[in-house]
Amino acid sequence: MAEGTAHSTQSLPLQDRVAIVTGSSRGIGKAIALHLASLGARLVINYSSNPTQANIVASQINGNSTNRAITVKADISDPTQVKTLFDSAESAFNSPVHILVNSAGITDPKYPTVANTTIEDFDNIFNVNARGAFLCCKESANRIKRGGGGRIICLTTTLVAALYPGYAAYVGSKAAVESMVKILAKELKGTGITANCVAPGPIATELFFEGKTEEMVKRVVDMNPFGRLGQTEDVAPLVGFLASDAGEWVNGQIIRVNGGFV
Ligand SMILES: NC(=O)c1ccc[n+]([C@@H]2O[C@H](COP(=O)([O-])OP(=O)(O)OC[C@H]3O[C@@H](n4cnc5c(N)ncnc54)[C@H](OP(=O)(O)O)[C@@H]3O)[C@@H](O)[C@H]2O)c1
After folding, report:
1. Is the C-alpha dihedral spanning 168, 156, 88, 53 positive or negative?
2. Treating both helix axes as pointing N-terminal to C-terminal, what angle do 132-143 and 168-187 enclose, rounded to 10 degrees?
3. Distance between CA 229 and CA 33 in Å, rounded?
4. Contact at 8 Å (CB) between 19 and 34?
5. Predicted TM-score of the model (pTM)
């Protein structure tokens, strides 16, 4: 079945489960949302500023049906808006949320050294990437369905392992998430909810290209054993697996998906 098309089969791995994918109007989050929809899930497409792109993703999922995907504007760094995200999902689909994928994230396209990182940029990055992930995890831990099928998946980055100069605030914010999620997985003992991080290498999205010269991009391509950039579709199937019942035994892990460059 083509990604993102509406369907009525009862045997799909995520049939009718409710998934919130933050930052799914574009980039990696969009590919994840379309993939989870192709596995049968009902989707909340979240964004913070651009409704047009979010609406396109929802229409692609809905096809001729109207009740498979909704869009919700919410800034994940704001606790009230994160609550609204969950409220909207529960009321639109008349169901608890089963799956939370936190893909919303930002970087500093100036790639500054620590010495040159402004306090504002540091705070912005930590607000969205670390505080945002914390708020999504907190709400998920309290509200995701117990007793099987509950999933929390946070997007971090392979750079936590590669540790390149120019990424300190960004990588620091993602390292914080990786530690938090490993602890969360243990705290969720007895709920049947798993918590994991998916840590991509460089993926061809706006976030990746912003502020990079052609030469910088070429260097990244040359470093990869596959000699290419990752595509959003290289990440989505792993998230689909973790979200499925077959992924239950993968819990409290950081899974890198990067073509082998680290
Ligand atoms: N691309 C890479 O090379 C790469 C590598 C490793 C890890 N990652 C991680 O993967 C995730 C997705 O990255 P991407 O490359 O897909 O980024 P992207 O193409 O820039 O998309 C970012 C998405 O996040 C949303 N967003 C931004 N700030 C938000 C906020 N405060 N609240 C809610 N939504 C917000 C954006 O919506 P609006 O347009 O409405 O703001 C957009 O949908 C990020 O966590 C990133 O750190 C990316």
Report:
1. positive
2. 10
3. 21
4. no
5. 0.97
DSSP class of residue 146?
Answer: S
- Mean pLDDT per block of 10 residues along the chain (262 residues) reads 50 97 99 98 98 98 91 98 98 98 98 98 98 99 98 99 98 99 98 99 98 98 97 99 98 98 92
Taking a C-beta distance cutoff of 8 angstroms, is the pair 221, 227 a contact?
Answer: yes
Respond yes or no: is residue 170 known to be catalytic.
yes
3.10.590.10, 2.130.10.120, 1.10.3720.10, 3.40.50.720: CATH of 18-256: 3.40.50.720
Q: Which residues of 95-129 are buried (b: 16+ CB within 10 A; e: fewer)?
A: eebbbbbbbbbbbbeebbeeeebeeebbebbbbbb
User: Distance from the CA of 75 to the center of ligand 1, in angstroms?
Assistant: 12
CB-based pocket (< 6 A), ligand 1: 22-23, 25-29, 46-50, 75-77, 103-106, 128, 132, 155, 157, 200, 202-203, 205-208
- Which ligand 1 atom minimizes the distance to the CA of 129? 45
Tokens at 97, concatenated: 């949320």
Q: What residues are paired with 71 via a beta bridge?
A: 45
For residues 74 and 23, the answer to whether their CB atoms sit within 8 Å is no
pLDDT at 8: 52
* CA pair distance 242, 145, nearest whole angstrom: 16
CA of 39 to the centre of ligand 1 (A): 22
Residue closest via CA to ligand 1's atom 36 equals 23
